[in-house]
Amino acid sequence: IHPQEIEAWYGLPLVRKELAFAMKEEGLDQKTVAGLLGITPAAVSQYVNHKRASDFEIEPELHIEFTISAKRIAHDKTLIFAEVQRILKILWEKGLVCEMHKSKSWCPDDCRVCFEK
């Protein structure tokens, strides 16, 4: 499968899970978090209880980015799409999407396609 599918199937759920945690820490209730992420309150519960999107973990320093995004979103809810895109871009830049791709689908061992310009 293509890297973009990996992003949709594994990257976006990982972002939703981490943002759900961070937004709840910022004091947003489960219903608000669900509405912002475009998911159900039950899905938020599954994310925060590690029952969904647990295939991959993020580096500890990335938690800071999710906290920053959650603070921005709590202050201005219209920033949700921009913040999700910002974090997805970071996942690409750090090679996490490539790691996901290599673990979930075939790709050449020396693949650098996502980094070529």
What would your notes on this structure say?
The chain has 117 residues and is mainly α. The protein is 67% helix and 0% strand. The longest helix is centred in the N-terminal third of the chain and has 23 residues. The mean pLDDT is 91.
Quick overview:
With 117 residues, this protein is mainly α. It has helices at residues 3-25, 30-37, 41-48, 60-75, 80-93, 96-104.
Main beta sheet strand tally, sense and closure: none
* Through-space gap between termini: 21 Å
| Number of DSSP-assigned strands | 0
In round numbers, the mean pLDDT is 91
Instruction: Report the principal-axis shape.
Output: globular
| SSE order | HHHHHH
Helix count equals 6
Strand content: under 5%
Radius of gyration over all CA atoms, rounded? 14 Å
Low-confidence stretches: none
Structural class by secondary-structure content: mainly alpha
What share of the residues lie within helices?
Answer: 55-70%
Write the layout of secondary structure elements.
Elements: H1 3-25, H2 30-37, H3 41-48, H4 60-75, H5 80-93, H6 96-104
Give descriptors for this structure.
117 residues; mainly alpha; 6 helices
